[in-house]
Please model this.
Amino acid sequence: MRTSPTAPDRTRPPAPGSLRPFHLPEIASARLAGGLPLRFIPDRRIPLVSGVLVLATGEAGVPVEQAGLAGLAGDALLSGTRHRSGVELAEALEARGTSFRVSTGWDASTVAFTCTAERLPETLALLAEVVREPAFPADEVERLRRQRLAALAQRRADPSDLADDVADAVLYPEGHPWARGILGTEASVTALEPGALAGWAEAALRPGGGGLVLAGDLSLEEAEARVAEHFGDWGGAPPSPPPLPEVVLPTPRRISLRDRAGAVQSELRIVHPGPPRNTPDFAALQVANAVLGGSFTSRLNLNLRERHGFTYGARSGFTFRRRGGEFTFSTAVGTEVTGAALRETRSEMTAFVADGPTEEETARARDYLAGVFPLRMETAAQLASRVAELLSLGLPDDTHHRYRDEIRGVTRDAAHAAIRTHLDPDRAPVVLVADGAVVRSELEALDLGPVEAA
Amino acid sequence: MLRILAERHRLDNGLTVVLSPDPAVPVVAVNLWYGVGSKHERPGRTGFAHLFEHMMFQGSKHVPKNRHFELVERAGGSLNATTWFDRTNYFETLPSHHLELALWLESDRMGHFLEALTPETLENQQGVVLNERKERYENQPYGDWDERMLRHLWPPEHAYHHTVIGEARDIAAATLDDVADFFRTFYVPNNAVLTLAGDLEPGPALEAVTRWFGDIPRGEAVPAVPGVVDPGPWVEGTPRETVEADVPLPRVYLGARIPSFADPDFPAVDLATSILGDGRASRLYRRLVRERKIARDAVSFAFPLVHGRTMMLSWITGYPGADPAELEAALVAEVEGLADVTPAEVDRARALSETRFLSQVAKLSTRADLLSMNQLLFGDAERLNTEVERLRAVTADDVRRVAHAFFRPENRALVTYLPREDRG
Model:
C-alpha cells in the first residue's frame, strides 16, 4: 500500500487546536407600554423565529396544600381559551406549523414556540389568546389532573425518581416548597379545585418581572411592532412568592435509607444546600464541580466507573436557582458494592474539598466548560431559551457574553476556595433507595452517622 | 430564501467532501455517509450493514476498542451512527477546536479497520445484535410489524424485501471473511460523502481532510444493488395477514407502494401522508381518535427511499375488544378518502413540514446530515436550499391526483395484530 508523503501520525489522538472565539450576538432590549419586557436577538440564517414568554411565577408561590396548582394551570393553558376549544387550538397551531410548549418551574414559567418567520404574527396572536384568555374547561382539567396523579405514581415506582424525591424531603424542612417535588403531592393534587385555576391564572399570568424573548429572522422593529399588537396593553405583575424558609443541615449527618427489598441496584444521592445563581462564586464552582463530578474525566466518574466498575455513570452538580440552590451527587450502583461505592465517594469528596483540584485538572475543566458552552447556543431556538433563562433567574443581559471569559479566568485557588466555602462533605445528608436487608449493616459500618428509615 | 453554502471537493481516492462554513458558533458537525445499506445485502447475508455499523465502534488499528465514545465525550461532544435501507451514517458534533479528533477517528476506521478485526469482536457484536433483535423486534409488542409488511409490499427479488436488522440466522452465520469482504467492498472512500458543517474555513478544513483521508486507497466500484429496481407502481392483490400475538390492543397496519423519494411526485405523496395521519388535525386523528373514538392513536409516514420505489405506512390502534374488520374498514376508508383533500389541509401539512425541515437545517448536526444525503443520493448537496420551494409547488390537485393513483385497493397490504386469547 502506497502511503502519502504527508501521512499523519495516527498512533495517538491529535491534540486539539486552541479554543475558537465565540461572538454571541447583542441582545436588544425594549419594554412595551403595559410593562412587558422584550428581548430580541437577530438570526437571519434560517427563516424561523423562536419565542419564549417568561412569567415570573411558579410553584414556589403556591401554598403546600395546593401544590401542583401552578403546574396544572400551566398544562391546562392549551386546553382551551375563551374563543376556541383545545381541539380548535391544536388545529390552529398545526395549521401554522407550530406548537406551544409550557413549562412550570419554581420561580418562573415559560411558554415556548418555533414558527416560520412569515407565520409569526398569527402565532403571537394565539400566544396572547392562550396566556390572557384561558378557559380551563372542567373535563380537560380533570383529565390533566389524572395524568399528573399517574405521573406521581410512576415516580414512586422508579427508583431513580424516588431517590430524588426522598433526597428533597430529607434536605428541605417541612414547609419549604422544595421539600416536595415540582409536580405536587398525591394528596395536594387530588384536593385541587378546578375553580382555583382561573383565580390563579388571573393573578399570576402577568408580564411584570418576566419578558418575551424573540430570536430569529426578523428585525427589532418588526419584533416590537408584532408583540405590541397583542401584548402592548397587557399589564400587571404576579404576586411575589413568600420568602424561602432557612435550610439547616441536621447534626449529626444521617444516612436516610428507603428500603426496596430485592433491589438489584442502589440509588445513591448526596445532597447539600447551594448558593443562588447570582453568587459571585458561580464560575469557580462550575470549574470545581467539573473536576469533582461534572464531566467524563471527573474524579468521581473515573473512580466509581473506570477504576472500580461500580456504575455506568456518577455525576455531581450544582443547581443554581433564582433563590437558593443545591448540590447533588447522584449514581446507581450494584447492591453488593453499595458500601464500597459510598466509601469511595466520601473519600473523593473529602479529599477534593480539603486539597482542591490540581493545576492540570483546573486547566482541563476550564477548556471543557468553555468548549461545550456554545453547543447549547447553535440555533435561534436555543438562543431564545438561553436568554429566557436570564429573565427567569433575574440575571443581566450580558451574562452569557461574559461566561467564557469568567470561566477561563478561574484559578486553581479560586476553584478550591469556592468548593470549600459551599460544600461540607461531613454534613451533607446521604440518601439511598436500596435493599435494606443487604446494605444496612455495611452502611452502619462506614460510621458516617445513624442510618434511618426514609 | 434558504442559502446554505456547500463547497464540494473530491479527493484523488474518490472521497467526496462537502464543506459548509457557518461561523455563528465554534461548533463543528462531522457527518459521513457510506453508500451502503440493507439494500446491498444478498439473500443469506441480510443484516450485514447493520452488524457492520456495530463493528465500526469496536476499534481500528490506532483506536482502541470502545474508545470512540469516550474520546468524543471527553472533548464535550456527542456521536452516533445509524443504518438504513439506502445508507449507513456516522456522525459527531464537537467544539470546533476538536475537529482533527473527529477526522482521526473516522479516517482510522475507514482506512485501518481490518487490522483490528478479530474473531472475538465479531462474535461479541453478533451477540449484541442478536440481543438487540430479540429486545426490539421479537420481544416487543408489534415488534415484527415491519418484517411482515415488507414481505408483502416488496417481491423477494427487490432489495427492500428484508428488514434492516436482518434474519437472525444470517447474523449468526456471518464469518470473519464475510465481514472483511463486506468492508473491502463498501467501506471505501469512493463510496462515501464526508460533510463538515459549522465553524470551519474551507481551505484549512480541506487540507486537514486530505491529510487524514488522503492516504486511504480507492476501492473498486461498488457493485449494483442486487435484484429488480422497479417492481412496478402497485403491490397487486391486497395481501393481508392477521397475527395473534402478545400485544395489549388490536392494531391495523396499512402499507402502500409509492413513487421514490427522488421522484417529482414524492412531495405530493408525502403531504398526502401527513394529511392522513400526522398530528391532531390529521384525518385519522380527528375522525377515528376524536370523533368516532374507535382508535387510541394513529400514525402515518412515508419513507424517503430511492431504490426504484418507496412506501407509505400507516397504522391505528384500537381499544380492547375492537372489531378488527371495523378498524380495517375505517383506516382504508380514510386512505381512499384522500382523493378529496382541501387546500387548507395541504397548507397545514405543508406548514408542519416547513417548520420541521427548517428546524433540522438550523441545527448543525442535522444540517450536515441533510447535506450528506443530498450529495450522496442526488449528487447535489445544495439541493436542500430548494426543499421549501418544492413543498410550496405542491397543489391540492397534485395531492388528489397522487392519492387517486396510489392509495387504492390494488396497492395496499394489511397486517392486523390481535391480542392472543388468554388460554390460562
Summary: The mean pLDDT of chain B is 96.
